[in-house]
Known about the structure:
The complex is a heterotrimer of chains A (about 675), B (about 230) and C (about 400). Helices cover about 70% and strands about 0% of the residues of chain B.
Amino acid sequence: MTATTGPLALSSGEDAGRNPLGVFARPSGSSGWRGWVSTVDHKRIGIMYGAASLLFLLVGGVEALLIRIQLATPNGTVLSADAYNQIYTMHGTTMIFLVVMPLGAAFMNYLIPLQIGARDVAFPRLNALSFWTFVGGGILLNSSWLLGGGADGGWFNYAPNNGVIYSPSHGIDFWNMGLIITGIASLSGAINLIVTCLNMRAPGMTFFRMPVFTWMALVTQFLLLFAIPVLTAAQFLLLFDRLFGARFFDVDAGADPLLWEHLFWIFGHPEVYIMILPSFGIISEIIPVFSRKPLFGYPFMVFSGIAIGFMGWGVWAHHMFASGIGPLSVAAFSISTMFIAVPTGVKIFNWLATMWGGRLKLSAPMLYSIGLVTMFTIGGLSGVTHAVAASDTQQTDTYYIVAHFHYVLFGGALFGFVGGWYFWWPKAFGYALSDRVGKINFWILLVGFNLTFGPMHILGLQGMPRRTYTYRDGYGFNLWNFVSTVGAFIIAVSFLIFFWNILSSWRAHKKAGIKMVADPWDARSLEWTIQSPTPAHNFDISPTVHRLDDFWHRKYHENAEGKVVRIATSVELVQPGNPEGVHLPSPSYWPIVISAGFPFLGWGLIFNLWLCVIGGLLILAGIYGWILEPSTDPGDHHGPEHHDPGEPTDEGGTAAEPEEAALVD
Amino acid sequence: MTETSTTEGELADARTLEQEAEGRAAEADYHLGAYHEGVDHDHTLTNTGMSNDKLAMWVFLGSECLLFGGLISTFLLYKHNNLAGGPTPHDLYDIKLTSISSFVLLMSSLTMVLGVSAIQRGEESRMRLWLMTTAVLGATFISGQVYEFQVFVKEGMGFTTNSAASAFYGLTGFHGVHVTLGIVMLLSAVVLSAAGRIPQARAESVEIVGLYWHFVDVVWVLIFTIVYLIP
Amino acid sequence: MSVVRRIRVLGPAMGAAVLLAACAADAPQDTLEPEGTYARGIDRLIDPVFAVAGVVFVVVLGGAIVIALKYRARDDDHYDDMPAQIHGNNTLEIGWTILPAVILLGIGVFSVIGIFELYEEPPEGAVKVQVIGQQWWWEYRYDLNDDGVYDEIVTANDLVIPAGEKVGLEITARDVIHSFWAPRLNGKRDAVPNRRHPWNIQADEPGEYIGQCTEFCGLSHAEMRIKVIALSRDQYDAWVEDQQVAAEPFAADDMSEEAAGYRSFTGQLCASCHLIEGVNDDNFSDDSVGEFHRDIIGGPGTIVDPTLQASRHAPNLTHLMSRTTFAGAKFNLRRDTEECTALGVDWADDPDDLDRCLDRGALEAWLRNPPAEKAMDADGTPRRGMPSLNLTEDQIDQLVAYLTTLK
């Protein structure tokens, strides 16, 4: 493999020039904002995913608070019906597509290469493209607030209410195209991470030595790979309907509105697991570390994750028990939905069994993990109660469902992510968040969370429908809605504490000036065998893995009496972080150039086709530059000339075609 | 989908097995040493033995199956729905013409195979010839489709005439766009090859284009059967 | 053993606690206080499932808390004293795979039985009503002669049924998806355009049962309300008879306020959308509606010009004063006082009662500027909802006077 690659690179290996297009010089350094904009480093991309999600979390959080303020009292007048419909639609869309999914992507991007002992993902530039495209989609989606109002049809945007007659503003067009674009980002990310997991594991890192987080990430990426195109197909149909007058969802042409429901939920239910599985992975890493025990039933954890991934495809119609599908379908989906609780239950029991008999240290990451186990269980149980299809006809579309999925997605996914932040923060940023503040943060969040969403179970059973901008006095809804609003503000406080913790811990770290150790938690997986913060090149040399939890086994040994004794300290084992001889893929501006084109396509289709031309030109120019530019800059030497064959490289590209080019980094 | 599941099944690769054996040998020795003491293993090979690029194409095609799955389901739901008036595609099919253009597209898979095998043998100019032929056959198919669309529109079935028409143009149009992108890929490969940038060592890049091309062909066989042949 | 007993008591107690908390006295839409056969069947499923869920809740949450406290590292030394390294236990794994599966299978069996009970065919001779949702009100059409065409009675907002009898509904919609739900009588069922969904309701006792649309249907989804009024069989029969009488036009030389209102009604845009049988039947025609959904979009009162109303229908006003609500049941037509409620659907028969019980203020406000009273896209093309007609106060008074004659 020569350093000069890409389809236009000369086979003789001669220099293709530093600025082949003459537009701008190839970025070389990694410092300053240019370093971030042009980075192809999976860690920086992971961090940017996290930062972007946090920004969108603020947006979605403010939307949530507005919803709760409106509903604090009966006949609320803070928001109009129209404003409320837009805000709740955008709250759901933002939280799902721009917060929870990219938070998963943040952890997966950062951790997968580290946990499998790789230097980067399979296609580093494609990775950058995924991230910036996601940002572009998010910007397009949220630009609707400034350009005539957000989508107003709910995150599921059922047809025909999503048609131009019933939603005449452009909100749904923004929603539609914004999500097609984030879909492109998710899809290219999925291809990238799947190939990374399948192809780039360090020597000895067999599948059944992969940490459970990586396993869950792999299952998640397969779900994304197959679920996203179904949504994209549905969204293209909607796009044709709204912009070009097609008759896919036109009731007057005899269209069947259930087509959208089916397509949406075939995507939508796997989506639920796309959101929760990364968190399951995260706490499967945290709990063993803070229990001083290996994960109980590792193969069962892996297989239950895979089982959830498969079964997730066979339950979509449980979102449609009241929609008018026949009794046989309802019965079949009712049963299949019940059984998906089985592998989930297996996970819960295995986490508890891991803790059983351990030495539990209830640090912040562990508290969040236990929080996930318990809160998710509540969400799972309420899930079983409405898997009973007959009862679901009373519960669906009420606040009972709102309570259920917030226990699953907030109590589940988000608790896991916050736990993950506390756990991996030292590895990513070289300083630890204050554990004391983290615990306070946890308890406030736990109280706020339960106050907000617990009462919604009761509201739902009392018959309060979801997606309603107002409710009446005298329906028994007043008290619990007020409690819920109070809870929402407590959640907001807990997030402020979290942000404050980031700042104050950083300041304390600066003041103390002590370098973070590589392995602060006495952990088990490969990311802890390298320096904190992770050096740009990850591993000085590829680790060779001999067993599951290899790092732990190099630190500890079970003696003849079955007593565990330490045989090495982590300081002795970790890599010094010497980049000599490592050749990294070079940064590039082209991913962000291509990504910048996508939102213009969206604006163009909505407002003026000339904007599409701008978008198209940006994309074409980006692709052209991308192909001309070798993925590793020949003029950029990271040390003595040494071609590490293990480096993520591209074995020669293919033709200059957009779709193909996106795949060949 | 089947493609990716087979890839998943093929995961146990020779190299990892070798490492496993080594791992077992080292099992007795608990202290395996620090991570900076080891010998950096040569891992030019990927774990699956398939290059990243090729694997990525397989994975991508797996995803494409679901995209077409969604569109084909939509067509099946609406194929006889002309409640808004106008003819349905089934009223207008010219099976003879479409059979010919389908045959042309199928033949292009053959020429694609010949092109790949040519470059694998290092015969660059022959590869260019076969890829050109493939592109021309693909373009013939697209011309047939454009002609067909134009006839249908003339006979009163536009994109917005009824749900069946929307579903028909949506599905076959998406496929046509895929073929067109494939032609762009082929032509780019020809140009690159003419510039000497695709030597035998890079035969795989042509193979990857071939994978895409075959996929688009197979999808057409499916569409032809489901859309045109089954009444 | 005591642990098991505690769980046995505590578990169902937890399930019951949630259910009890939800059983507030003043919750007319409560799903846990069934007042009909179907809702009761569902309720009977809910109780045991919540009990099981409560047990699992106590076991898992209690387990997690007990484990967290019991195995908590006392200090750093204790933390560094490594526990036994247990990697797993196949028997346990199989156990906690099979056990939940068996429990769920049990629940599943009851679930399936429950489903088929809900989907039963209505009995022979049952009252048949077509329930049609549109933005943002419900139309109810009755098939009295069993010819499969729902055209004998067309009413809106209040669904009137005989108490104690199973009523067969055909639920559908004219524009977007809605969902019909009167929680004390049965679960919800989506009203989907181009689809005709069978569903049943039954009320044990005469009374009024509250519900609302539960599938998001646009702007005023929150105010698309439902009221089911169950009457004794006698009263129901009388109601049916009354509903089939057409209204009388006023003579051109009638100078009463009612007649002036009548002329306002027929002279204004009102009469292009609202059908009053015997008055403006000629304004409506379903000829332009596609054959395939003429039974839904068409029928009595189909507006000819589709830009006037996307759904092609506005509430039929022939017997407005036999209803208790208006504007998608958002507002009370009959005052919500005890004495007025006691009058039932006949509240407007006696002039004194009418005077006392008519919520004149609400009706006048509505006529003055409907979009200010309820969120609607009344100026869109096509319209969705009632536009402001810029009526003068005199016209409003006359119109109200006329409307009170529609009994």
